[in-house]
Each structure stands twice: as structure tokens, then as C-alpha cells.
Amino acid sequence: MKNTLTLWRFPNLRIIAIRLFMVAMIVGVAAPSPAQALNVGDTLKLGPITLMDGKVLTPEDLAGKHIVLQIWASWCPYCHRQNQNLMQLARDTKGSNLVVVGLSIDKDPKAAAQYVQKHGLNFPVAMMTPELDRAIGKRKGIPELYVLDPKGKVLQKDTGEMIDLDVFELDRFGK
């Protein structure tokens, strides 16, 4: 290690490095904090969402409705079981003030589309977009489920597979 160059062996470089670090700390670029995850009480405003079938789900389509927003992936077995329960919830609440929407985080949109077709998901499904990803923030796991009130306020957040009865009880938001 005697040939290794370090800042500490060169006082002038050390001073420059410390000054750069201090300036970076002041302007907030030295240690960026991770995106904060969306939590209960926060608001998520959904703009137009392009669904996998090419249709667009507009804010007007969702106006006055509670939204069950699930983040999932085609390769996730827990997401699969929860999707089956969400399909039942969508059937049970059809025509109510509750809408189930899925956001796939699959890297390959074809894999997500094949999953949707194979399993016959009966609720709107879209791919995660960079804008939604930033707005929702860092995930701790999948599936991740949010219940939004008609104004976009997060009323409930669940990470990991919910048991079927907990999913079916979400119908209370459609009444």
C-alpha cells in the first residue's frame, strides 16, 4: 500500500476535498436522501394513466371514487394470490364508488401483459411510470396496496400479501 495515493497524504488536496464536501452539504448534493415512501395521510394525485390495453384512465373516470391501487409484478407469487382476491373485490364492487387499479413493476411490459391475459385480470392495469414511481416513493416490498379517497388522500397502506378477508373488507370504501 505504500504506492497508494490518498487525500490525507496531501494537505492541499485534503483541504480542497473538505471544502467541496462542505459546499455540497450546504446545497444538499453530498448525501441525497432516498425518496420518501407514500404513507397514510399523504396525497397522491393521479393524472391520466395509460392502461396495458391502450385505453387511458383519466382523472375524470376516477372522480368521486375510492381507489385501491396495487403495485405488483408478474413473477411475484404473493402478488398472484392477492390479484385473485382483488379480482373478486372488483367483481363484488362493480358499479360502486370503488375502483381497483394495478401497477406492474415488471421490467418487461410483455411479461406483465401476458400475465394479465393469462389470468384474466378484470381491473385496469398499467405499467409503473417514472412519474408514478417518484410520487409513490421507495417500496419496502410487493405487493404494495394503497387505498385512496376521492381526493387522493391515502387512507390505508399495506405491504406484502393481505389475507383474503382483509382484501374483501376493502369493499367498505365503495359504499
TrEMBL record:
Subcellular location: Cell envelope
Any one GO cellular component localisation term in the record: cell envelope
UniProt keyword annotations, A-Z: Cytochrome c-type biogenesis, Redox-active center
Gene Ontology molecular-function annotations: disulfide oxidoreductase activity
InterPro entries with a match to the protein in the record: Redoxin, Thioredoxin-like_sf, Thioredoxin_CS, Thioredoxin_domain, Thioredoxin_ResA/DsbE_sf
Stretches assigned to the Thioredoxin domain: 25-175
Stretches assigned to coiled coil: none
Primary location class: other
GO process terms (BP): cytochrome complex assembly
Superkingdom, natural source: Bacteria
The protein's name in its UniProt record: TlpA family protein disulfide reductase
Lineage: Bacteria, Pseudomonadati, Pseudomonadota, Betaproteobacteria, Burkholderiales
